[in-house]
């Protein structure tokens, strides 16, 4: 073979040697790229399968919950007698506006009181046997060395309310009742039935800034009342009235027109007459400031006194001012107070401890009775379950003895100390020691000593 023939195969061999590794290298890179894409696709498939499995598990769990709930509902329906309506089978507010919310609440309160007096006995079945009522403290009678025990559940309470918005206006309706019924034995007797009537406490409607109906007087600061075991506590020192009214509130201000009623004493006597002959409403105004420190409030009242008889038409005027509030003293203490003064406002203070006024000899004029009353109460929280309060209260009446005589109340005062234990939320078990005193214009007086225990459960 000549040189030319040898040169051609050699060139082909060299070319093959140069090309084959590149082709092998190119084939390997493409395979690796394909393998990477396959791995990525497998990961995506696994993720989709995992998500599907989780969704199936959640659906299975939800189906199990539905089946359990249906089983319970079936059990309740089987247990109910045929023909009886199911619980809330129809809407509670069938005539209510859309989005109206209905609520219900109250408390059960059981009271036991051991009472002794030194100048007579408080009449059986009267309000003074049920809560601290300074005007009921006997004066001038025999010393009652023995102790009277009274028990009742008449201050248990329940209420209904509906709240909602009607065409952009906030509306509320509220009804509240207790079982006071006018006192023990009003409908039944303690020997057998202990029947007591339902008593209307509040019934009003409010919309936006307006309120109409029966509720606490605008002249009273309910937020300043102490944490008492007794129904009120420092009764003689506080304004305490519920009545029908029309009220307008805006920011810190509230004004109202309220039911006129006049309590009048006879000339040189202790007998009282309640008159609804007034033709002008009682007018009140209140200003309140609130903050994390507590609240402060000032209220004023102006009113007409009037009593008509077949032979005379007596009239007079009344006015008063009340300052009250609550001061937070750290996380565990607060101080509550009220100071009220005026003339012709007797029925507003201390459950009408004194009258609004006294008739003159001819029955043609009403002499307004002045009053100055107040209380201070310190509350301390020992721990989340135990709290206590100490209260001091006094009222002084400015009687014109030439008109009233000397048998009317001149002053009343009391001291209260209590402890309230709450073993769990909404349940209170408490006891309160009460000392009260009432003095007449003649100088005669009487004392009351009471141990008041209570159990109260709110719902």
Automatic annotation (TrEMBL):
Pfam families: DcaP
Residues spanning the signal sequence: 1-26
Superkingdom per UniProt: Bacteria
Keywords: Coiled coil, Signal
Coiled-coil region: 31-79
Protein name in the entry: Porin
Species assigned in the record: Thermomonas brevis
Lineage: Bacteria, Pseudomonadati, Pseudomonadota, Gammaproteobacteria, Lysobacterales
């Amino acid at each position: 073979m000549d040189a030319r023939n040898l040169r051609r195969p050699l060139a082909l061999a060299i070319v093959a040697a140069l090309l084959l590794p590149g082709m092998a290298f190119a084939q390997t890179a493409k395979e690796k790229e394909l393998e990477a894409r396959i791995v990525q696709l497998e990961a995506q498939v696994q993720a989709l399968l995992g998500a599907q499995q989780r969704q199936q598990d959640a659906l299975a769990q939800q189906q199990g919950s539905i089946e359990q709930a249906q089983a319970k509902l079936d059990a309740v329906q089987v247990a109910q007698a045929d023909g009886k309506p199911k619980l809330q089978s129809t809407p509670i507010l069938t005539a209510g506006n859309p989005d109206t919310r209905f609520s219900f609440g109250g408390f059960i309160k059981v009271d036991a009181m051991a009472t002794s007096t030194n100048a007579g006995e408080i009449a059986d079945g009267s309000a003074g046997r049920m809560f601290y009522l300074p005007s009921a403290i006997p004066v001038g009678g025999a010393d009652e060395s023995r102790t009277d025990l009274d028990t009742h559940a008449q201050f248990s309470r329940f209420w209904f309310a509906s709240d909602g918005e009607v065409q952009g206006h906030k509306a509320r309706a509220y009804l509240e009742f207790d079982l006071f019924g006018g006192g023990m034995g009003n409908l039944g007797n303690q020997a057998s039935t202990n029947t007591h009537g339902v008593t209307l406490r509040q019934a009003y409607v409010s919309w936006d800034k307006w309120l109409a109906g029966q509720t606490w007087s605008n002249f009273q600061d309910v937020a300043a009342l102490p944490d008492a075991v007794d129904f009120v506590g420092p009764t003689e020192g506080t304004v305490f009235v519920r009545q029908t009214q029309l009220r307008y509130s805006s920011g810190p201000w509230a004004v109202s027109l309220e039911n006129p009623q006049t309590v009048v004493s006879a000339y040189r006597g202790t007998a009282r007459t309640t008159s609804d002959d007034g033709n002008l409403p009682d007018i009140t105004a209140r200003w309140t400031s609130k903050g994390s420190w507590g609240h402060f409030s000032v209220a004023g009242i102006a009113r007409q006194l009037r009593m008509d008889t077949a032979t005379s038409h007596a009239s007079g005027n009344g006015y008063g001012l009340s300052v009250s509030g609550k001061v937070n003293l750290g996380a565990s203490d607060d101080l509550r107070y009220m100071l009220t003064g005026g003339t012709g406002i007797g029925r507003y203070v201390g459950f009408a401890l004194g009258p609004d006024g006294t008739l003159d000899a001819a029955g043609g004029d009403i002499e307004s009775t002045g009053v100055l009353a107040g209380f201070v109460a310190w509350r301390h929280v020992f721990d989340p379950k135990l709290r206590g309060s100490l209260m001091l209260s006094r009222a002084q009446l400015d009687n014109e003895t030439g008109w009233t005589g000397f048998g009317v109340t001149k002053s009343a005062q009391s001291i209260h100390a209590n402890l309230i234990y709450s073993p769990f939320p909404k349940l209170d078990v408490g006891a309160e020691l009460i000392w009260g005193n009432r003095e007449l214009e003649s100088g005669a007086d009487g004392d009351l000593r009471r141990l008041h225990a209570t159990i109260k459960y709110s719902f």
